[in-house]
Design goal:
Layout: H1 5-21, E1 43-49, E2 60-65, E3 76-81, E4 88-93, E5 99-104, E6 110-114, E7 123-128, H2 131-135, E8 138-139, E9 144-147, E10 150-154, E11 157-158, E12 167-172, E13 177-182, E14 193-196, E15 201-204, H3 210-213, H4 217-221, E16 233-238, E17 243-249, E18 254-259, E19 267-272, E20 277-283, E21 289-296, E22 306-311, E23 317-322, E24 327-332, E25 340-346, E26 354-356, E27 362-366, E28 383-389, E29 394-401, E30 409-416
Antiparallel strand pairs: 1-2, 1-30, 2-3, 4-5, 5-6, 6-7, 8-11, 9-10, 10-12, 12-13, 14-15, 15-16, 16-17, 18-19, 19-20, 20-21, 22-23, 23-24, 24-25, 26-27, 27-28, 28-29
């Protein structure tokens, strides 16, 4: 595939940068504007929610060694507390992989870490405190998605009524606000955003506003009026024009979106959290898209709240994590319109995020969904668990107990690497 000139320039520049800092590992389902590199990751960065009474009680970035050849394998290498509890949630690397942007859903604060200078000990280099004001009222920065020279940030809510109407903000890599694009009136909710460069199409999904996501889950479930305030759509955009083209009906709060990764595979997957369904978003012959209900996830009579998904780099296996039953399910999606459940494994009492290595050999899981939604009491497990995957089963390799270490509630993960000799060139996608 021939990239646009700007994209090609970014890719070439990124390869040169990577030759110097030595990034060698990657996970699937990242921005296509990131240079694609393969190999064994040295670290996993875990964005972690602070818990009252645990350690310093603050949100923090926890670095864990993941290279079996290192003495730090399976151990906490460094901890950086950002001060305060912001509802640490999602984050992403910028387009040269030197900075990791992380957000808080409650305070809407954004923290930018240098992960290139000393990958074992990320350093906070910028804090953005005025996201709500600068964006014109977007609240709850969620997805951080690398674009050439900038970061796209989806919101979950707004400053006016803390409901689900929201927008998409863009910032320069240097932290300067550029613009806000509001979600269309017919589909005002937001959550994830993913771009297919070849098609010039972006997909966005929909969740709920701050009034709901900051409410304790049992209370929310018993509030019939509040439960009506969830998104039911996926929007198809002209990416370059940032113009909505279609609103697809996907009932039940579709969350994470994953485009197929192989050329000419013009489809994506998402899961509906409230209905427990796997959906496909497929390009039709006329260039428009359709949403197709593909399969149940777990017991259709008792949906287990699917939350995160990860697609293998060959587009064969889709990992689907569900929160309520703590189980990951693997679907064979090599025939994308006819997925088959081929494996399932209970990871913990509850489960949220999954990150899969590009070579498909390693899979990592974390436990926390939201501070007020996580299970409590003896079921309040907080962990990072690492496994190998051989295409048939998951085999555990190590576990870090965040509760025992009083580190907090681990949420999203991103891979990092120790520096190597200057001049080494990473392999691009």
């Amino acid at each position: 595939m021939q990239l646009p000139r700007s994209s090609a320039a970014v890719a070439i520049a990124s390869i040169l940068v990577l030759g110097a800092v030595g990034a060698r590992a990657d996970e699937t389902c990242q921005s296509p504007y990131l240079p694609k590199v393969t190999g064994q990751e040295d670290y996993v960065y875990v964005w972690t929610l602070g818990v009252k009474g645990w350690g310093d009680e603050s949100d923090k970035l926890v670095t864990i060694g993941t290279n079996p050849k290192s003495p730090d394998y399976g151990k906490v290498v460094s901890v950086f507390s950002v001060g305060g509890r912001h509802e640490a949630h999602h984050g992403g690397l910028n387009d040269d992989r030197s900075r990791l942007w992380l957000g808080g859903l409650d305070s809407s604060a954004i923290f930018v870490f240098d992960v290139a200078t000393d990958p074992a000990r990320p350093k906070l280099v910028r804090k953005i405190d005025d996201f709500v004001e600068a964006s014109g009222g977007v609240v709850g920065p969620h997805t951080f998605y690398a674009l050439p020279g900038r970061m796209l940030i989806t919101g979950l809510s707004n400053a006016n009524d803390r409901g689900g109407r929201t927008g998409i903000a863009e910032y320069s890599n240097e932290g300067r606000f550029i613009r806000t694009t509001w979600m269309p009136d017919e589909a005002p909710y937001g959550y994830d955003a993913r771009v297919n460069v070849a098609l010039n199409r972006m997909l966005t999904s929909s969740f709920t506003g701050k009034n709901n996501y900051m409410t304790e889950l049992p209370k929310l479930i018993n509030d019939q009026a509040a439960m009506k305030n969830f998104g039911n759509s996926v929007v198809v955009w002209d990416y370059h024009a940032m113009k909505p083209l279609q609103v697809l009906e996907v009932p039940g709060a579709p969350l994470e979106i994953r485009w197929a990764l192989q050329p000419r595979h013009h489809y994506a997957f998402t899961t509906a959290a409230l209905t427990g369904r796997l959906w496909g978003i497929f390009r039709k012959a006329d260039g428009t898209f359709e949403a197709v209900d593909l399969a149940p996830i777990g017991d259709p009579a008792n949906p287990p709240l699917p939350v995160d998904i990860s697609l293998s780099s060959d587009d064969k296996y889709l990992f689907v994590d569900s929160f309520m039953d703590g189980t990951t399910r693997v679907f064979d999606v090599s025939q994308p319109r006819s997925p088959k459940l081929v494996y399932e494994k209970k990871i913990g009492s509850h489960l949220n995020m999954v990150s899969q290595s590009w070579d498909g050999k390693r899979v990592y899981f974390t436990s926390s969904l939201l501070a007020n939604w996580d299970k409590t009491g003896p079921a309040n497990e907080q962990y990072l668990k690492a496994f190998t995957w051989d295409g048939a089963k998951l085999t555990p390799t190590f576990e870090v107990d965040f509760r025992a270490l009083e580190l907090g509630r681990p949420h999203i993960m991103r891979f990092g690497d120790a520096p190597v000799e200057a001049g080494r060139v990473a392999r691009a996608r």
